[in-house]
User: What shape does this take?
Amino acid sequence: MKKYIGVKSFYLLLVFIILICNFNSVFAASKTELNNEQKDIDAKINEAKEDLKHVEKDKSAALNAISKLTDQISGYENEIDDLNGDITDLDKAISGSQTKLNEAQNEYVKQEELLNQRLIAIYEAGDISYLDVLLSSSSITDFISNYYLVSELASYDTELLEKIDSKRREIEKAKKDLEDSKSKIEIAKKNKQTKSNELKAAKTDKDGQVAKLNAEEKQIQSDLDEFAADKRAIQKELARLAAIEKQQNSNSGNNTSNVTNNPSSSGFIKPVVGYSITTGFYGYSGHTGVDYSGSGISGKPILAVKSGTVVTSTALKNASGAYKSYGEYIVINHHDGTMTLYAHGAPGSRKVSEGQKVTQGQTIMNVGTTGNSTGYHLHFEVLINGKPVNPVPYLPK
Assistant: This one.
């Protein structure tokens, strides 16, 4: 990060002016006067240093407060996204339950009408029983025919009653599911409103803290905010792709192994050979992965930790063409519930493109320092449903 030199420069300039103003008098003064003036100057310098410490402390406090508020805002936004997803799913559940309920009720009405017709037919036949029908047969052939007819009618009546009872239970379940979904959606909407209010308050608080920053700090904070927005957009897109794949697997009956609950089964290798993690997951505010760095890492090959399909291979740049955020970065879908992200690669070093199949250990890029980076390193993330999780459990020791 850049040094906050604006305030320091101001106080150094103040001290310099004080020294210049006293320059002539120092040479004309006596030893005692010189000592006294020196004491005054020292006192002013010390006073300036103390003031500077207070200013730096205030600025640090403001930046720390903004950092915490940024994390809170990100958390609220993620929670609201989750609640929106819940509301969408519940809307679909309500629609499905209502459709099932309508179908069951229509079928119930039809079957009830058939039963009523059977009862009317039996009533109109008077006291004639199934036995009467059989005994009135004129021949053995007629007897067999009548026996078959009676059996079919008895079977039909029993089946009809069972269908009616089954539809009645189906209607009751559909009604219960519908009411449960409606209750849940009301809770989700209330929670969303609460989180939206908390998000609004956090953003207002953050705006107030940002106003306390100097111009240089505001620019740094603006860059960090842009980075956070870029990351959020990337995570939403990856979550969308993960949801599509999950639905496709569900429709095809494909059951992929769920490594989200068993990271050790992921089978990942290290993304950079010979280097270790130097900054961990959330090692600082907003850090959603781990960093690999060390002497001589610049230009080293970045490896795919596992086979998969490249879903993103691009460079993030601002309007002026300068790198921002992740800089040169790649995302690989491993089709097992995980995706991995590799960021800050060397300019133009990406060796794979979107849609390409890659194998474990294949070189996909070289280590660089593009984007929001202060030195040569690889930023590595593991994502589940588009959300970053701690990569350490997935990586070899």
Notes: The beta strands are 277-279, 290-292, 301-303, 308-317, 323-333, 339-345, 357-358, 363-366, 378-384, 387-389. Confidence is low (pLDDT under 50) at residues 1-29, 44-59. The domain at 259-394 is CATH 2.70.70.10 (Glucose Permease (Domain IIA)). The chain has six helices and ten strands.
